[in-house]
Amino acid sequence: RTMFSRTTIASSINRPMHRLRAIIVMTRNRDRHTPATSASDEKAFVATTGAFHESLRTNNVARFMSYIDDAAIIAPPGEPHVSGKKAVEQWYKGFLTKYRTSVLVLSDKEVFVGDRWATEFGRFDWSLAPVDGSAAVLDHGTYMQVWKRQADGTWRFAREVWNSSPPARADVSH
């Protein structure tokens, strides 16, 4: 926040000394890192998402759920969205009755960390081993996750949408 209201800045722009002071204050405040957007916050966020993704790699339901916000929503490809922590847990347990993650590679990640929210956008390659022993399935596509900062400073998974990007068919003309 600046020391001046917008009205004060606007009314003082016409006076040269006030104009200079207003520009300095606006520039100083624009460049200042708040605690919520510091490099250490981004590092903590990346560590949290790394541990979360590791729980997916190891099929660890309890650990996975420990990162989920009570009001979380996921939107799996080709399915209706799933709302609420209990529903997400049911969905994930149902998924694990069919598949186990054998490899999960995330790439081209973009991370944005703010005061109360953070996002991660990227690409994924997800190798899934069917529980019935049939041939492995490789899924790849893009994802976006939204995370919510808790009052204690920790991050909880709040939203995710991901899509599968099957290979382009040869018979599709552009």
Task: Describe what you observe in this structure.
With about 170 residues, this protein is α+β, with helices and mostly antiparallel strands. The chain is built from 5 helices and 6 strands; from the N terminus they run ααααββαββββ. It has a 6-stranded mixed β-sheet. The radius of gyration is 22 Å and the shape is globular. It starts with 5 loop residues before the first helix and ends in a 10-residue tail after the last strand.
In short:
This protein is of the alpha+beta class and 174 residues long.
SSE map:
Blueprint: H1 6-12, H2 16-31, H3 39-57, H4 61-65, E1 68-75, E2 82-83, H5 85-96, E3 99-113, E4 117-130, E5 137-149, E6 155-164
Parallel strand pairs: 1-6
Antiparallel strand pairs: 1-2, 3-4, 4-5, 5-6
Give structural attributes.
174 residues, alpha+beta, 6-stranded mixed β-sheet, 5 helices, 6 strands, 36% strand
Query: Given the structure, what is the number of helices?
Result: 5
Total DSSP E strands: 6
Beta-strand percentage? 35-45%
Largest sheet: 6 strands, mixed
Radius of gyration: 22 Å
Outline the low-pLDDT stretches.
1-36
Distance between the termini: 50 Å
User: Structural class, please?
Assistant: alpha+beta
Shape: globular
What share of residues is helical? Answer: 25-40%
The H-and-E topology, N to C, reads as HHHHEEHEEEE
Order of strands in the sheet with the most strands?
2-1-6-5-4-3
